[in-house]
Design a protein that fits this description.
Layout lengths: L1 E5 L4 H12 L4 E5 L14 E4 L5 H8 L2 E6 L11 H21 L4 E5 L28 H19 L4 E6 L1 E3 L8 H10 L5 E2 L3 E6 H14 L5 E4 L2 E4 H12 L6 E2 L2 H18 L7 H6 L9 H7 L6 H14 L19
Parallel strand pairs: 1-2, 1-4, 2-3, 4-5, 5-6, 6-10, 7-9, 8-12
Antiparallel strand pairs: 9-11
Helix pairs in contact: 1-6, 2-3, 3-4, 7-11
Length: 343
């Protein structure tokens, strides 16, 4: 039976699709007519053109499908048209669950985000799958849309649709071509655009491990349950310090107050609206950085057999991929990032 993957042209979804093919699964991918298909090069998978707004294309994509990995999402921290994000992330996911149920799909792995769980807390315990956040606690349209989409997944499971939810943290590694907001941090550092840092933190995970967690969720996950797929909690300063020897560039030592970063974000968005470009410092991202996105992810290890690896090799793979694909500007007199440094 065929396995359908949405979002296979994206960073995480591409790794999920490739791991499924490597494991011997017949794979079908849903791609939009406007999608950049370069990431599908060398992937032995059937392609169906369509999107989450087109019920007919969803129905065609589901024919003969046993499992669905719904990884596709509109992941932006700034948009001129937020309604598009809700249409894709919320309404699109609801349509997919309904069409999957109509076609007798046996298991759906829905890719949510840790952002629906990690909210500011005052106690010593870290958030986990039992943490119940509210819509009011979601900062920005991306988080709000994913929170509402996750509610649709929970409602679908309660109605008998076989949905398992995974909540990735911040994947890093090769193939982040857009790049994601986390990848943008790495690229900006590699290009010398981070003279200072803010006091924040993320949970990083190797993208390969996160993708493997999706496959485990399909095999062992309980319907209606959430599973955080993370690895290591790190402050931004720790991340940049880990990148420094890989990139041959010193980590910044100056901590930027959040108020200054927020003012810069508002100024950048104002200029972006005037010029038509996307902002480099999205206000939503700055607001999110006010608290550390640290979590506890033992549940996936206990129930799924999920075993995340060390982060430093994943950062090295990411740096090597960015270097090989032209994301890093050469610096006069700087050492080239070599295979020995980034392998």
């Amino acid at each position: 039976m065929t396995t359908l993957v949405t979002g296979a042209t994206g960073f995480l979804g591409n790794h999920v699709a490739r791991q499924l093919v490597a494991a011997g699964h017949p794979v079908r991918v849903l791609v939009r007519s406007s999608s950049n298909l370069a990431q599908l090069e060398g992937l032995n998978a059937e392609r169906v053109v369509g999107d989450l707004q087109d019920l007919g294309s969803l129905d065609r994509a589901m024919k003969g499908v046993r499992r669905v990995y719904h990884v596709a999402a509109d992941y932006r921290l700034w948009t001129r048209h937020p309604e598009e994000m809700y249409e894709s992330n919320v309404a699109g996911s609801k349509r997919l669950f309904e069409v999957a149920a109509q076609n007798g799909v046996e298991r759906i792995v829905y890719t949510s985000t840790v952002a629906t769980i990690v909210v500011p807390t005052h106690g010593p315990a870290l958030p986990d799958e039992e943490t119940r956040a509210t819509l009011d606690q979601m900062i920005g349209h991306y988080k709000r849309s994913k929170f509402l989409a996750e509610l649709e997944a929970i409602k679908a499971a309660a109605a008998g649709i076989p949905v398992v939810i995974v909540n990735p943290t911040a994947p890093v590694g090769p193939g982040d071509w857009k790049p994601t907001p986390t990848g943008r941090i790495i690229v900006d550092f590699l290009n010398g655009k981070m003279p200072a840092y803010v006091d924040t933190g993320l949970n990083l995970v190797a993208v390969e491990d996160c993708a493997a967690g999706h496959l485990l969720a399909a095999e062992k996950g309980r319907i209606g349950e959430r599973y955080i797929l993370g690895a290591r909690n790190m402050t931004l300063k720790e991340i940049l310090t880990a990148l420094a020897p890989i990139a041959g560039r010193p980590a910044p030592r100056v901590r930027l107050p959040h108020a200054v970063a927020l003012a810069a974000g508002y100024a950048d968005e104002f200029i972006a609206r005037l010029t038509g470009r996307d902002p480099q410092i999205p206000v939503e991202g700055v607001k999110m950085s006010r608290h550390r996105m640290f979590i506890e992810s033992d549940k996936a290890q206990r129930e799924l057999g999920y075993r995340p690896s060390a982060i430093e090799p994943a950062l090295e793979r990411a740096v090597r991929w960015y270097a090989q694909h032209g994301y890093i500007r050469r610096r006069s007199g700087a050492k080239r990032i070599t295979h020995a440094q980034a392998a």
